[in-house]
Amino acid sequence: MALIVQKFGGSSVADAVRVRNVAKIITDTYKAGNAVIAVVSAQGDTTDDLIDKAAELNPNPSKREMDVLLSAGEQMSASLMAMAIEQIGCPVVSLLGWQAGFQTSSGYGLARIRTIDTERMTRELDQKRIIIVAGFQGLCKYGDITTFGRGGSDTTAVAIAAVMHADKCQIFTDVDGVYTADPRKIKNAQKLSEITYDEMLELATLGAQVLNNRSVEMAKKYNVELEVLTSFQYGASPIDKMLLSEEQLAALTNTTTGRAGTIVKETVKMEKMLVRGVTKDNDAARISIVGVKDVPGVAFRVFSKLAAKNINVDIILQSVGHAGVQDISFTVSEANAAPVRALLENDFETVLVDTGVSKISVVGAGMETHPGTAAKMFEALYSEDINIQMIATSEIKISVLIDQADADKAVAAVHAAFFGKE
Ligand code: ADP
Ligand code: ASP
Ligand code: MG
After folding, report:
1. 182 CB near ligand 1 (under 6 Å)
2. Mutational test site, ligand 1, from 15, 156, 170, 175, max ligand atoms within 8 Å of CB
3. Any idea which fold 3-175+210-269 has?
4. Which of 64, 100, 236, 392 is the most buried (most CB within 10 A)?
5. Domain at 285-354: CATH code
């Protein structure tokens, strides 16, 4: 008997029809002789709606209370899913994060998993019950509910797969795999059959929402192979029924999902594709300290101040000094723009902040051994008359900072350069 962990995101459980559809995926997996632990997110836009509700009452609520509020979205989903499964007639129990044994740091809103006590989950599986776990939450040492940050249910699923030594971890979502760009924005984006942890981690960190980056980091650490697939094409669609042969239809309905998704793992067959994906991240702000003295220790002064406040810095650019002065520019997340300005304003005369920027990246392990990737990317941007403000590279990625107004055009142009026009 295999143990399968399945995770269903917000759109997969958005309403009663979708919950019923997912309940069928879960129970079919169970009826095929597997033990199943399913992690669910809050329904549809519930988390955003709860955030809006909080804002109506308090523009600056405590993080502790936000966690109590937001965890309720997943609580609702888990109980509703369990009810739908009861209705199908399979044994099931829903567990909140703490009941499933998740102990976390006390970093409300962005808590880290410390340990998972597997006793309760093991007991429920021994009773042959399907377990539905409420995603992205746990309990900290003060006995408070914590949440893991946006998109954190992916991490709940990977953590359970790791600690319970699951045979499979399937992340069901509203697209049928990881693509070379957001398939909702780029029509000819190509589905990747496989991708390495490292590439996926870069894509996720640089803006591909399909997997949460922390979940990928954890999957790599504990060697949990992930499968990204859709919950929306379960079995045969009406179009499938018109187009496919009896045999093909039987194959489709016999597999868990109907279609192959993307596998995320340590190594993949080297494909011809140098670049595996193009991403956009609007959550960036550019800070420029203009006209500072060109003497040793200035960069140290700036960045040690930010480090002391735990503020992450991304791209850094220091201009060549002339006439005894230089400029230092760097990017931080948008939420950190105001705190950074406040931190530096007293020490430096001119601190400029621009939140209207976007980071466009290309990612691929193959580019390390193939020169010319950067030139191709820059040419694509030039052909659209898009100005590059900053550049950052690593072995497997190239990122550029551009005006946010150009972002979608830039993704389309760069994607077309590597994967052909739409
Ligand atoms: P869930 O609610 O299931 O967690 P998310 O909305 O978090 O789903 O992630 C799925 C979305 O990620 C897709 O609807 C798609 O628009 C977006 N996305 C962005 N980049 C990519 C990519 N490279 N491949 C696939 N999906 C992507
Ligand atoms: N419901 C949370 C969010 O919307 C967590 C998740 O969906 O993974 O971010
Ligand atoms: Mg998600």
Report:
1. yes
2. 175
3. Carbamate kinase (3.40.1160)
4. 100
5. 3.30.70.260
Distance 102 CA to ligand 3 centre (A): 19
The per-residue pLDDT for range 5-28, each reduced to its tens digit, is 999 999 999 999 889 999 999 999
Helix (H, G, I), strand (E, B) or coil at 308: helix
State the helix-helix crossing angle for 46-57 and 63-88, rounded to 10 degrees.
150
Q: Please tell me the total number of residues recorded for the chain in this structure.
A: 422
pTM: 0.91
Ligand 1 atom closest to Cα of 184? 16
Reply yes or no on whether the pLDDT at 240 is more than 90: no
**Every domain of the chain and the residues it spans:** 3-175+210-269, 285-354
State the distance from the centre of ligand 2 to the C-alpha of 147, rounded, in angstroms.
9
- Closest Cα to atom 1 of ligand 1: 9
Spatial distance between the Cα atoms of 409 and 206, rounded to a whole number of angstroms: 17
Q: CB of 394 within 8 A of CB of 301?
A: no
Q: Which of 13, 153, 173, 228 to mutate to test the pocket of ligand 2 (most atoms within 8 A of CB)?
A: 153
Nearest to 188 by CA among 278, 281, 264, 282: 278
Nearest of 329, 406, 392 to residue 361 by alpha carbon: 392
Q: What is the pLDDT of residues 320-338, one digit of tens each?
A: 988 899 999 999 999 999 9
